[in-house]
Design brief:
The structure is a single chain. 40% of the residues lie in helices and 13% in strands. By secondary structure, it is an alpha/beta fold. It folds into 2 domains: 148 residues, Aspartate Aminotransferase, domain 1, CATH 3.90.1150; 234 residues, 3-Layer(aba) Sandwich (Aspartate Aminotransferase, domain 2). The strands form 3 sheets. A 7-stranded mixed beta sheet has the order 2-8-7-6-5-3-4, sandwiched between helices. Strands 9-12-11 form a 3-stranded antiparallel beta sheet. α5 links the parallel β3 and β4. α4 packs parallel to α5 and α12 runs parallel beside α14. The longest helix is centred in the last third of the chain and has 21 residues. It is globular and about 60 Å long. The N and C termini lie far apart (48 Å). 46% of the residues are buried.
């Protein structure tokens, strides 16, 4: 067996199942899950006709690179959304369709990390983080170094706090903006620092932007890495790759569809890896994806639905829990009046609401501090009435804890 499998941590939801198994939830209350970031809004109307009219495409082997029509559609969306010129994004050289960002993030690490060098290569990750960053790095033979995303810095990882000795071994830096679970959005200055470090120490930046279309202010969509490159005069996207998905943007998590775009040389090697990895996207999925990337109206509707939920839930919870209303994403990241694991377990036992303890999404520092400690992640993915009911139950739970002072 691959001995690197032994280095993997249990996945957050495995820990959550064990935590919940120790207690019994009240059966008179319907369960409301706020733990998993799985969108529950309606599937866009254009999906069903494509399924009915193009089902014959399931009889065809898809190519790893995907159709030119899909890649052209994605390139056009990238240019519209991130203020790029058409000549900056070549559908032949700069992007590839992928089966969701989770699969692609894992595959990219296996493509770009050279574990044969000494000393051991480093992957730098925000903390808290999406667990694939860590697992993919460990299985590729790298050490993971975390940068805490703390409230005092707007939940933006402070890259300048990483010592030169770490950057000298770094091969890959993960960014996540808007952040999971914080919803924090990086500025142009944040991206500029990351790019300056990548140039100085010769590493790749992987920017996870799968929450980029779920933002509160319609006049201020989040900046992306390729947009930042363009503003900073980096037309070749050197050392940069971005990840986008239809899961959150279009309520299509089961479609497993997204794309990776950026540095043409990296994409060339990524295509080579994927040819052997066997991760080509079905022709039918490509047809649905092309329709989704071509339409913005359903995304506008989606954002309105999340705004309504944030407004309602934050009003109910604000007297009981301390949190920042995020600029983007669909998570709340509140502080808890007691230990986060105890909070999640007791909330489930008393109110049959499931939330995710913050420490399940983060790693402790050498001094024992943990940016996820005494926080929980609330995924506002259910319908509005269910989110409101969950918030009311959480408020009642906090009152019983004496959490009004939290």
């Amino acid at each position: 067996m691959n001995t690197r499998l032994e280095t993997l941590h249990p996945y957050p939801f495995e820990k959550l199942r064990a935590l919940k198994a120790a207690v019994t939830a009240p059966t008179e209350l319907a369960h409301i899950p706020l733990s998993i970031g799985e969108p529950q809004h309606a599937v866009p109307d254009f999906v069903s006709p494509v399924l009915q009219q193009q089902s014959h495409l399931l009889g065809c082997y898809p190519t790893t690179k995907g159709s030119l029509a899909l890649r052209e559609t994605i390139a056009q969306w990238l240019c519209r959304r991130f203020n790029l010129n058409a000549n900056q994004v070549d559908p032949e050289r700069h992007l590839l369709p992928v089966n969701g960002t989770r699969e692609a993030l894992f595959a990219l690490s296996q493509t770009v990390i050279n574990s044969s060098v000494s000393p051991q290569p480093v992957v730098v990750s925000p903390n808290p983080f999406y667990q694939i960053y860590e697992g993919a790095a460990l299985l590729a033979g790298a050490e993971v170094v975390f940068i805490d995303a703390l409230a005092e810095h707007g939940f933006i990882p402070q890259l300048h706090n990483i010592p030169d000795a770490v950057w000298q071994r770094c091969q890959l830096l993960h960014l996540c903006s808007p952040g999971n679970p914080t919803g924090a959005v990086m500025s142009l200055q944040d991206y500029a620092l990351a790019l300056e470090l990548a140039d100085r120490y010769d590493f790749i930046i992987a920017s996870d932007e799968c929450y980029s279309e779920l933002y509160r202010d319609e006049q201020q969509p989040p900046l992306g890495l390729l947009d930042a490159c363009n503003q900073l005069g980096r037309d070749d996207f050197k050392r940069c790759v971005v990840f986008h998905s239809l899961s959150k943007r279009s309520n299509l998590p089961g479609l497993r569809s997204g794309f990776v775009a950026g540095d043409a040389e990296i994409m060339k090697q990524f295509l080579l890896y994927r040819t052997y990895h066997g991760c080509s996207m079905s022709e039918l999925t490509q047809q649905i994806s092309q329709a989704a990337w071509s339409d913005e109206q359903h995304v506008l509707t989606n954002r309105d639905l999340y705004r309504a939920k944030f407004a309602a839930v934050s009003k109910i919870l604000a007297p009981h829990l301390s949190f920042n209303l995020p600029a983007a994403g669909f998570y709340l990241w509140p502080e808890t009046p007691i230990d986060d694991c105890d909070f999640a377990q007791q909330l489930f036992a008393q109110q049959n609401v499931t939330v995710l303890p913050g420490r399940f999404l983060s790693r402790p520092a050498k001094d024992g501090s943990n940016p996820g400690a005494k926080r929980v992640r609330l995924a506002l993915v259910a319908e509005l009435e269910h989110c409101i009911e969950a918030a009311q139950r959480i408020a009642q739970f906090c009152q019983r804890l004496g959490g009004d002072d939290a």
